[in-house]
Amino acid sequence: MNDVTSCDGGGWIYSDTVKDHFFRPRNFMDDEGAAGDMAVGVVGSPACGDVMKVWVRINPATERITEMKWKTFGCASAIASTSMLSVMVTEDGGMTLDAAQKLRPQDILSRLGGLPPRKVHCSVLGDQALRAAIDDWMRRIG
């Protein structure tokens, strides 16, 4: 069970899982030049405050996501959500494209142990960026 604590003494409450993925994000893209032939998806708007960029490598023979990298300009919830999403789609040999396209923000929220109600929209960005990256891959392969 996650121990929840307030981040500001009375405001939003984050689970231990959210804090772990914020402070130690998984699969973060350190060097965009290393993306090479990876498909990419970008969502969000700097005017709104959150922008997410996701890169995926997909095995064409199995249509499984073998690698996902990401960068975001956003809050702790956006960072934690995308970090968790990157784990979800690459664990156990990689998620199939069909399964990845059926992922819902609620699936990410569940794995995180929830987010404060005002931050739930952050899990939607990762989901949308992943779909955009899959669309990019599909365009590339025709």
| Silhouette | globular
Proportion of residues in β-strands = 15-25%
* CATH arch. level architecture: Alpha-Beta Complex
Main sheet overview: 3 strands, antiparallel
**Helical proportion?**
40-55%
Low-pLDDT parts are 1-10
Series of secondary-structure elements, N-terminal to C-terminal? EEHEEEHHHH
CATH topology call: Sufe protein. Chain: A
Structural class: alpha+beta
**Average residue-wise pLDDT:** 87
CATH class: Alpha Beta
Strand order, main sheet: write it out.
3-4-5
Number of strands: 5
- Count of helices? 5
Domain count: 1
Rg of Cα set:
15 Å
The N- to C-terminal Cα distance equals 45 Å
What would your notes on this structure say?
The chain has 142 residues and is of the alpha+beta class. It has a single domain (5-141), classed as Sufe protein. Chain: A, CATH 3.90.1010. The protein is 41% helix and 22% strand. The chain has five helices and five strands, in the order E-E-H-E-E-E-H-H-H-H. The protein has helices at 16-23, 76-90, 97-102, 105-112, 121-141, and strands at residues 5-6, 13-14, 39-45, 50-59, 64-73. Strands 3-4-5 form a three-stranded antiparallel beta sheet. The protein has a two-stranded antiparallel sheet with strand order 1-2. Helix 1 (16-23) crosses helix 2, helix 2 packs across helix 4 (105-112) and helix 4 (105-112) crosses helix 5 (121-141). Mean pLDDT is 87; it is low at 1-10.
Outline the fold blueprint:
Elements: E1 5-6, E2 13-14, H1 16-23, E3 39-45, E4 50-59, E5 64-73, H2 76-90, H3 97-102, H4 105-112, H5 121-141
Antiparallel strand pairs: 1-2, 3-4, 4-5
